[in-house]
Structure formats: C-alpha cells, structure tokens
Amino acid sequence: MRVVLAEDLFLLRDGLVRLLAAHDFEIVAAVESGPELDRALAELKPDVAVVDVRLPPTHTDEGLQCALRARRERPGLPVLVLSQHVEQLYARELLADGTGAVGYLLKDRVFDAGQFVDAVRRVAAGGTAMDPQVIQQLLSRRAADAHPLGRLTPRELEVLELMAQGRSNAAIAGQLVVTERAIAKHTSNIFAKLGLEVSDDDNRRVLAVLAHLDRGR
Amino acid sequence: MTTDTQGGAVRARARDAALAAVRGLVLAVAMLPVTVLCLTLTLVSLALVPIGVGVVTTPWILGGVRDVADTRRRLAADWGGVPITSAYRPVPAGANPWRRTLTMLGDRQVRRDLVWLPVDMTAGFVTALLPAVLCLYPFEGFAVAAGLWRVLADGRTYWYGFVPVTDQPTALAAAATASVLLVAAYHLAPRLLTAHFRLTRAFLGADRRELAERVRVLTETRRDAVDTSASELRRIERDLHDGAQARLVAMGMDLGTVETLLDKDPAQARLLLGQARRNSVEALEELRGLVRGIHPPVLAERGLGDAVRALALRLPLPSEVSVELPGRADAPVESAAYFAVSEVLTNAVKHSGADRLWVDLHHAGGTLRITVTDNGGGGAVVGAGSGLAGVERRLGTFDGVLAVSSPVGGPTLVTMELPCALS
Fold this sequence. Notes:
A: alpha/beta; 10 helices; 6 strands; 54% helix; B: alpha+beta; two-stranded antiparallel sheet; 10% strand; elongated
C-alpha cells in the first residue's frame, strides 16, 4: 500500500516512517511542508495520505487545508489527519463531503501500533477512523439534551461509541468480547432507536451515525 | 436610470430624516423621565449621606446613572455615528459602601455624568426633539391649508409659526411655510440629531484634559495585567511540576526498572511497560489541557471566529455562533477576546440555568463587539468573586469594556467591546 506522509517534526516523521514500513506499507514520500504535500498528493497518487494538521510554512492548519483541497480535486482520496489536539470543528470539515475515507486521530494513538495501523488500513479502504475523544465530545453533548440517545442502554452506547469511531462489527465484537451476532443485534436496536435506516455497508453506517450525532448544532 | 438613482437617493434621504425624527423623539420622550429620575435620586441620596443611608444608596444610584450614560454613549455610536469614550475608575472589588461612595464621587467621569444630567434634560431634550418637530410640524401646516383652519381659526387668529391664519389665503401661506420647513427637515433632521449627540459627547466624553486620568487607568489596568499574567505563570509552573513533569519522572523510573527486570522477570517488565505507556498518554493529556489554557491551538491555526466555534462545540449546551470578522486581530487581542468569551460561556453554563446560548462576533468602526446571550434565569452581576469581574480586568488591558444586562428571570446578555484593527 503506497503512503504519502506529511509531518514537520523530524523525530515524529522518522518514527512514523519506521512504524509504517514495519507493517508493510510503502512510503512513497515523507514530506515536511504544505507545498511539498500538495505536490506529492497530486503527482504520486498514493493509496492513503497520513497528514499532520500543523505544517510549515504557515504553521497553522496547513496540513488540513492541503488534505481538504486534495479531496476536493480527487473526491474520496483517503486521508488520515493526525494532530496534537482534536476539534469537532475539524472533524466536521473532514466529514462534510460525505464520501468517507477519512481519519482524524490524536497523535497519541500511534502509541498503540496495532490499532493505528488498523486505522490507516481502514481509511485506505474507504472507511472512517474518528478519534475516541471526538466521539466522546459528541456523545457527552448529546446526552445533555433530551435526545433519543437517552433511550439507549449503556451497552448500546458503548457499541455506538465504537461504531462512530469507524470500527466494523467484527472489531467491536473483538473489543467487547462478545459475538458478532450480539453486536449486529445491538446495532439494529441502536438504529431503530435513533430512527436511522439500517445499512449493510459499514462505511455508510458510520457516516450516518456521525451525521446524526453532529446534527442540529 | 438616472432618475431612478436620483429617486432612490431622495427616498434614502427622506428615510434618514424620518429615522432621525423618530430617534430624536424616542430620545427626548423616553429619556427625559429617566434623567429627571436619575438627578432626583442622586440629589436625595447625596442629601442622605450625613445620616448614613446615602452611603449605602449612593453607589447603587451612581451605578444606575452610569448605566444610563453608557446607554446614551451606545445610542450615540449606533444612531449618530458619534463614538463617546469613557474613563471610569474601577471600583475596588469587595470594598465597603463608604469606600465605594468615595471612589465613585472622586471619579471625574462620574462627576461629568452628573453635570450632564441637567444639561440633557434641557438643551439635550430640545436638540433631540427638534428633528421630530421639524418633520411633523409641516404636516400640521398642510392640514391647516386643507381646511383645518376653519376649525382652528374659528372667529380668531390661529398662529401657524409666525403666520396668522384667518382665512383660506393665509392658510395657504401657512402651507407654503410648512413646505419650507419640510425641505429644511429633509436636509437638517439627521444633522440636528448628530448635533444632539455631539452635545452629549461634549459632556459625557472623556476629553483631552483627562489625559492624566487616562494614564491612571492605564497604570491600573497594566498592574492588573501583570498580576494576572504572573499568577497565570505560577499556575502553569505548578501544573507542570505536579502533572506532566511528575509523570515523566515516573515513566523514566518504570523504564529503568524494566531494563533490570527484562531478563529476570519478563512478565513484571511487561506490566511496567504498559504502565509507562499509560503515564505517557496521561502526561500528553495534561500538556494538552495546559496548552489549551495558554493559547488554544485552534486560535493559533484559525483565528478567533473558528476558535469560538470550536469552543461552543465543546460546551454541554447547544449554541449558535455567528461570526463576521473580515480579518484577524493582533494575537494578544485575539487571545484576550477568546478567554473572555470562554469565561463568559463557562459562567453561563454553570450559573444561568440556560438551555441555549448565542454568541455573536463582529467588527465595525474599529471595534470588535462580542455578545453572549443565554436564555437562563438572569441575575448575573459583575462583582466581587464573579467570573465576569475577571473578564472585565482581562479586557481592560486592551481598553475593552464589558456590559451585562441580566434582569431577574433572564435573559442574560453580556456585551464585550475591544477597540482593535483587523489585518
């Protein structure tokens, strides 16, 4: 799988290159600034881009802007955005086009190499990987108002949280140590309670849930 | 096409004149009782100082006078485009009534407010009323010419202005005068209202002679700013020392132990490795919180508008944010504005009992104006121990001001203004 990596701090870039190479990714470019990233994305046509939000020359949200720009030109271009902090505002912008194939994670998530690599693969395959912090913020806020979310059982909330992060039923089942059948049952309950249409497509399901949680604010 | 634009200009001008008349009327009619009441209460309260009652009431009443004066300053800026600056001396938080009375009476701005009251109820009243009179009086002239003279001048002379009306021809002369007056109103009404606001500024504004006062205010706000930043630094130092730093030390110790245990007890080593990793995650989390408190990343990356949007998304209440900022302010101003909004929002969430919040940011006439509204129970005050006093201090460093309107029963409207240029 061909990866373009953009990260301005040498230590982190180096670490990420080694981590991804160790998991059989091919790093076609590891760049350190916005303009370089623009070029790499346009010329190298990677399978997935792993991008730091803050990049030179502006040291603002250059990386995020590059990613959004590239996705406007190539809708559905898989991009995993990494950051020292996560903001719902940015998550919303990444999800806005509704095509999926986006990830938005705290840099700390790299510590768990297995889960991180899994997220990169999921995004490359057109799926979603949202940081648990983003999801928790969405859920905590929802829990505060009179919302159908209040009708979910604690277990269903747990499943919803993992589902919104972009995990598949199999992955959720693995994490909660139950059968996939049980998860499928929870999922259909959740969708019924939230009034959402059930979809067999994992990716569409995640996007529907995220859109539902983000709605009306 | 030309006539169209001309017609449009005439209509716009007529609208301006009518608007000036209505506003003048509102100022004259609605404000007169208020200023009379203010002056009466102040005089009574001051008379009661010797018997002690006045000491308690005076700060309240002078505060009320200040609110009235501030309203007029705001109206002058909004309606007449005449910005009026003020330089009130801050009243020390938690001071006793006696000290508050003395501080307020010693404040030159407060004394100017008091002088303004009688001026406003006389000269101010007349200048405010004039545009309305100019606009409305001509219509009486027309009515007289149309036949009203038969009723008014029934057997005697009715004076329309300086025209004695006795019959139809003289009534027509009245109408001619009325036309002249209407033309005058068309041209002069907005200017007359501006003249009223200029008069207000002459009495309510802080003038050049008060530069010394200004220096004193600056010295005070600077001391506040230095105090605030020193205590902020102390807090950050303490947080780093007890938080992230301690966790890194623990991590280092764990890793050292892992090194020695690696061969002897791999299971125990693995346990410690997990613990070290957890510590690193926690340390990062704490650092993130700290960074957010020093200078939020979104603010650095996106500027004030998006930073406030991101802030609103973190609130446990639904909120609406509207932003109209054509550029970015200087970093220190942005930061002050951000933390002010943050504090006001936190206050609203904690104390107002609201279930919805509105934030509006816009920049006009060299001023950044931020309003935060909630639909809660009201009753918020800027005073000792309230978060709003801190906000006032924070904004004061940049000559910003804070106004709170929070009647019991709500809603609460907090307005903050910061003079600044956008780039």
